[in-house]
Amino acid sequence: MKAKALSYFGVHVPLQQPASPMRGITPDLWRTQLEVSRVRNPLLLSWEDVGCAYSTPVGIKRVLQDVSGAANPFELLALMGPSGAGKSTLLDILAARKTVGRLTGRVCVNGAPRTSDFVRRISYVPQEDNFMPAMTVQETCALHAALKLPRDHNSHEQAAARIADVLCSMGMLHARDTLVGGELPGGLMLRGLSGGERRRLSVAVGILASPSIVFLDEPTSGLDACSALAVVEHLRDRARESGIAVVASIHQPRAAVWACFDACAVLSLGFSMYHGPCSDLIGWFQGHLGYGPWDSAVHGTASDWVMDLVNVGFTKGELPGFTIATRSDLEQAARKFSVHYKCLCSAEKQHPGEAPQKHQQQQPQKQQQQQQQQSESAVATRSRRRGSRASAAASEAGLGMPPPAPPPPSALAHADSWPLRPQQGTAVLRLSTGGGSGRVLSTGGFSAAAWPTLGGAASGGGASAGFSSAAAFSVGGAASLGGGALAARASSGGGGRSARGSPRKQQQQQQADGPKVALARSHSRPLITVETLDCGSSEVSGVELCEVAAAVVDRDKQRPGWWIQFKTLFARELLVTMRNPADVAGRMLLFTWVGVFCGLIFWGLGSGLDGVRNRVNLLFIVVQLFMLLPYVYMSLYAADRRHFTADIAARLYTPGPYYVAKTLGVLPFALANVLLCSLIVYGMAGLRLSATSAVVNSVAGVLTYLIAAQVQALAAIIMRNEDGAFVVTIAWTAGNIFLSNFIIRFSDMAHGWLRALRFLSAANYAFSAVLRAEFGSGFLSCDGGLSPDLIRGLQTLLPATPALRSSAVLQMAARAGSGCVVDLEAVLDYFDVRLSMVSYIAVLALYLWVMHVITYAALLLLAKRERR
Ligand SMILES: Nc1ncnc2c1ncn2[C@@H]1O[C@H](COP(=O)(O)OP(=O)(O)OP(=O)(O)O)[C@@H](O)[C@H]1O
């Protein structure tokens, strides 16, 4: 056995021969210590009987039916099928992003149900990206790096190196300073990346944080043939190196692209037609189901042929050979595969890792015949992993599958010293061989007590050593070695139970069980000791620790916290706004124009009653303007919702920092615009020359605007589309206007409930505040007075309301002549303004706060729904 050193993704793995064999292990075992400076986290994803149905006007539409499968670490899985087959739906379900539809079935990670941190450990590259058009490629990557990379790996230099690495691998380094481009919220088109470049940027961002599983919805669509191949090859290399599982839906891969995939799942009309190694695809459809024959010269790649085969949406042309022509043919083929796949799964559960031998023993004659058939079959291919066990199981089930390949020699792995708390989950070991084939046998449990660590930390399975009830881990599952690597999964669970009892019993148990992984906590440095037995003809050259679930927990703790998220999102907010100067300037011009126009209309407010009337009208109009002006931002709010839902589904950040960053990010621009408009009107119209009045007027304007903007933000969150958001906002604005005391005196209102509703009118409070600021004290000259005729005319025009006819304003106006003054308190009385300026401002501030609380609650609900 050779001792080598493996250096791999930051993990330096010195391998050495054991000084002395460990207790309970045969002397030819091979042992190494891995110094774990960084761990990777491969995940084994499996799904069983997954279904999805929608309620439609014409009834229930089932878009996925009992689909089962698995995605292994180190492998590329192609999700294929005709358009509408359900690929995106399945991807969404597997990536825990499906928020609509009736979902059934189970999705497991390392054999256990998915936990809440699953989404943080994966990456999803959607068909349609959701990048900010005004950010450059580099900025987009930096944003994701800041929000995704663990804190300890997030120094500026490290993040920059990582970004350069992924951009380089996607052939995007040349475009790092190019704007992403696309349609801005206002409808403006920003020139930027081409469609293919955007796609590559999506993939680059997807793999930036080295996720354990990458889901890609049609990563090659829109790419030229060369780029498509480069992208897929890179994904394959990443999978091989880092142990990530890649699941990609793909249409018509060219031969070179198809060759990069290890396994494929074929869907059609929501049925699972096949799931297994790519090399067995033809064998299943042609050798087992009898379709075809496949002729590469006529049909193209195997994937092309199978796509033609399972597509029943069209009348098929002159395709040579026997094909699936109708839906019932398709359903029959799907049923056969379902039976076959279930057989394989149950065989694997009953005899993990041993199914081929067992079945061979049980049915030697049948297998001999099948072996003969296999050798005669031109399409028989090497069975690997599930495929081989599937074959055995299916043979047993009488489905006539080709027999499995002979069992490879076994390898044995032991991890003895563990730096972390194993009760938190799973471990994955990866064994490298010099060639040939072999596999890890599954094992029963063991006890930590049976495996004292090098550091001597473990003892008796007791909680003192950090093991408690989960002291037992077992290697589960099996994998054959194809060209040098295998993955074996270790998980807590069933094996643990068998290991309980006295230390002696546990030791006996583990000796009987064979290969094992033993875990213990190291007392000082992160250290893992791995031991393997000679695996026959396949020389074990390396054992790598690929996953420590507890390390994942630690890594999660290192994820960017609240403050970093806030800083990053706040910077994004400012950047995106500043990068849209036409929009910013356009909106500012609008506010200026409104202010100037209003100022011109009310230029010279006049004195006496005209002055009163003009002032009251102006104040009311300005309040209404500040309620209406936020409508120019509705497209931004709708775009924000899209970005937020996409980001939150990807667990890019949490709602809290986003909300604060968003609120503070828009504040400077809102303040600038409102103050500009308000002060222009104030100055041009010549409202009361007092600092207090001017300040109150401005503050009331700002608060009114912010409240109205908040209502828009809330509407954009609770409604799914922009039209719906407009409906909600317009309803609120109309209510505010009509419930204002400018429109009607509350005491004159016919309905008591309407009077109660006026408390909801922010316009009412704002109008009262500015009225109080303008007419708060003093008298207004009415030297000129009004002619008695005009007064009489006015009185006849006014409704027969005693309050109006006998109002102090009119009475005073009637006393025209020298020394005539209007008591401004009378104006306030008339409009029911009874509180102080400060009170009205406080009420407005409270109103804004309540709106924020409601909006944030709505945002949390939206986030919860997106993270379902
Ligand atoms: N919300 C929904 N309500 C009703 N039907 C839906 C809904 N969403 C998707 N579907 C249907 O589900 C089916 C599968 O859609 P899906 O997008 O998963 O297909 P696909 O295989 O990814 O197709 P393509 O390759 O064209 O992207 C389609 O027939 C689609 O119309």
From TrEMBL:
Location of region: Disordered: 350-417, 486-518
Name of the protein in its database record: ABC transporter G family
GO function terms (MF aspect): ABC-type transporter activity; ATP binding; ATP hydrolysis activity
Segments passing through the bilayer: 588-606, 618-639, 659-682, 694-718, 724-744, 756-773, 837-863
InterPro entries: AAA+_ATPase (IPR003593), ABC2_TM (IPR013525), ABC_transporter-like_ATP-bd (IPR003439), ABC_transporter-like_CS (IPR017871), ABCG_transporters (IPR050352), P-loop_NTPase (IPR027417)
Residue ranges of every copy of the ABC transporter domain listed in the record: 45-294
Native organism taxonomy: Eukaryota, Viridiplantae, Chlorophyta, core chlorophytes, Chlorophyceae
Any single GO CC term annotated in Swiss-Prot or TrEMBL for this entry: membrane
Keywords: ATP-binding, Membrane, Nucleotide-binding, Transmembrane, Transmembrane helix, Transport
Membrane-related topology note: Multi-pass membrane protein
Location relative to the cell: Membrane
Biased composition annotated in UniProt, kind: Low complexity: 358-381
Tree of life domain: Eukaryota
